[in-house]
Amino acid sequence: MASETPSSFSNILIDWYGRHRRPLPWRDTTDPYAIWLSEIILQQTRVRQGLPYYLRFLEQYPTVFDLANAPEDEVLRLWQGLGYYSRARNLHFTAKQVVEQFNGEFPSTYRELLLLKGIGSYTAAAIASFAYKEPVAVLDGNVYRVLARVFGKHENIAAPASKKVFEELANTLIPATEPDTYNQAIMEFGAIQCTPVAPDCLFCPLQRTCFAFQNGLVNVLPVKEKAKSSRQRFFQYLVLQHQGKIYLRKRPGNDIWQSLYDFFSLETDTLHPSPEALQLEAAETLGIPPIPFSSTGKVYKHILSHQRISAQFYLISLPFRLREEKEESIGLRLYSVEEIEALPKPILIHSFLNEHFF
Ligand code: SF4
């Protein structure tokens, strides 16, 4: 199966667009101010919700001078209901920037447009192509999806590093003659034909050469894997001492710090659990009568790639050894301070020992 050549790909999309495009007011203008307004309003906003705002803004502020001269409170009031108010403040700021630095004329190239506040690569490409016909490809979620599916791109679109790959591909596909129509077409195609869920593959003009369709990967592409969010954990370390020695255990392999040594610990949902509950749980797990103990007061923190650890330490002098079967089942052993110095330990444990024992 061959893939589309750039010209057949763009021709098919432009042809499709001519038959399926939705009539939206910002598509019938080459005024960079109106295009910019629509792009900022439509960021994080659905077309149906953004449309009345676009019309109201244009009516109230027909030119960039009107917007620049408006009081900020008024702009924010007109924006009310759209959310993400920093967009409105940026909009107002950029209008002033255009008036003061560019005499009210929007810059006419992609590179210069990027100098304006709140204008990133997507908006700059949209204005440069729609208003000035500069052949620079737009890249929004719709475009990523169409390109990943049609050309079989498996790069994770949520990873910043993938942007370059898609940007390069997109810029080889954009035609020099109708870059504005092509950019509109590919975004519209992603919005209504090649949708995230249940795309209309059956009646798709790209079906014959679409990699995802031909390989049964429509539900797999694009790959979008968000970076795992960092998990906050709270460790309560009980530093159990007996006759000048301290209990430590070698950490098992199914968690962080595999094979390093640390103290007996209980993991809790909060940094400061109820002391009574903690004492009861410790007594039960260790097989000893409940004994009162309190934290040394300092919180130790450590950040790993996907976890943030906060730990508290409790110094406990035991008048007896733990029962042998408990020592074994938990993996605890008594070590002298000298022996502990030589053991591999997480930095957090090392810091605590440094402050209290070494
Ligand atoms: S065949 Fe399906 S997946 Fe491929 S471009 Fe068309 S709608 Fe998208």
Keywords:
2 domains, binds iron/sulfur cluster, alpha+beta, 358 residues, glycosidase, single chain, Endonuclease III, domain 1, 8-oxo-7,8-dihydroguanine DNA N-glycosylase activity, adenine/guanine mispair binding, EC 3.2.2.31, 4Fe-4S
Report on this model:
This protein has 358 residues and is an alpha+beta fold. The protein has two domains: 6-214, Endonuclease III, domain 1, CATH 1.10.340; 231-356, Nucleoside Triphosphate Pyrophosphohydrolase (Alpha-Beta Complex). Helices cover 46% and strands 12% of the residues. It is built from 16 helices and seven strands. Strands 1, 2, 3, 4, 5, 6 and 7 form a seven-stranded mixed sheet that branches. A hairpin with a 2-residue loop joins strand 1 (231-242) and strand 2 (245-250). Helix 2 (32-42) packs antiparallel against helix 8 (121-132) and helix 5 (72-79) crosses helix 6. The protein binds iron/sulfur cluster (SF4). Residues 149-150, 193-194, 199-201, 204, 206-207, 210, 212-213, 218 line the site of iron/sulfur cluster. Belongs to the Nth/MutY family. It comes from Rufibacter immobilis.
Specify the overall morphology: elongated
Structural class: alpha+beta
The ligands found in this model are: iron/sulfur cluster
Strand share of the residues?
5-15%
What is the CATH architecture descriptor of the largest domain? Orthogonal Bundle
- In whole angstroms, the N-to-C terminal distance is 69 Å
Low-confidence stretches: none
Could you tell me the number of beta strands?
7
CATH class of the largest domain: Mainly Alpha
Count the domains.
2
At the fourth level of CATH, the homologous superfamily of the largest domain is Hypothetical protein, domain 2
Q: Which sheet architecture does the biggest sheet show? A: 7 strands, mixed
Helix content bin: 40-55%
InterPro entries: A/G_AdeGlyc_MutY, DNA_glycosylase, HhH-GPD_domain, HhH_base_excis_C, MIG/MutY, MutY_C, NUDIX_hydrolase-like_dom_sf
Function: Adenine glycosylase active on G-A mispairs. MutY also corrects error-prone DNA synthesis past GO lesions which are due to the oxidatively damaged form of guanine: 7,8-dihydro-8-oxoguanine (8-oxo-dGTP).
Domain HhH-GPD: 41-192
Pfam family, one: HhH-GPD
